[in-house]
Write a structure and sequence with these properties.
The chain is an alpha+beta fold. The chain contains three helices and six strands; from the N terminus they run ααββαββββ. The protein has a single domain, classed as Nuclear Transport Factor 2, Chain: A, CATH 3.10.450. The model has no long low-confidence stretch (mean pLDDT about 95).
Length: about 130
Amino acid sequence: MSPDEQTIRDLDTQWYAAEQRKDLDGFMRFVAADAIYLTPNRPPINGRDGIRRAVAEAYHTLVSIEGRLSLVDVAASGDLAYAVGRERTTWRRGDDIATTEGSCVVIWKKTAGEWRAVAMSITNDAPLH
């Protein structure tokens, strides 16, 4: 495993830990200024401010989140990488609790020696209605 691949895996672990704590600043430290976030059933969220608002809103109903990477691929140039994995999230829905599972992809870009997420996408395995 290359040092950059290990770094991405370590960042992913730290990122999920921040989410589990509902640490908004901790979550945002991984996100690039011009990032885009694609989530089920909503239009793309562009930029740090929009992503911050969306994640803060989601934290109101978040019970728990966990993820695991299955693949990290770092470009030969050493400045781009993508990570693919699975995610399991439990939400509070009124008096009920719901769990969703899906896939996730994060595109990472290294700028000035720091890796930041520039594109994030999550899916939901629920069947279409």
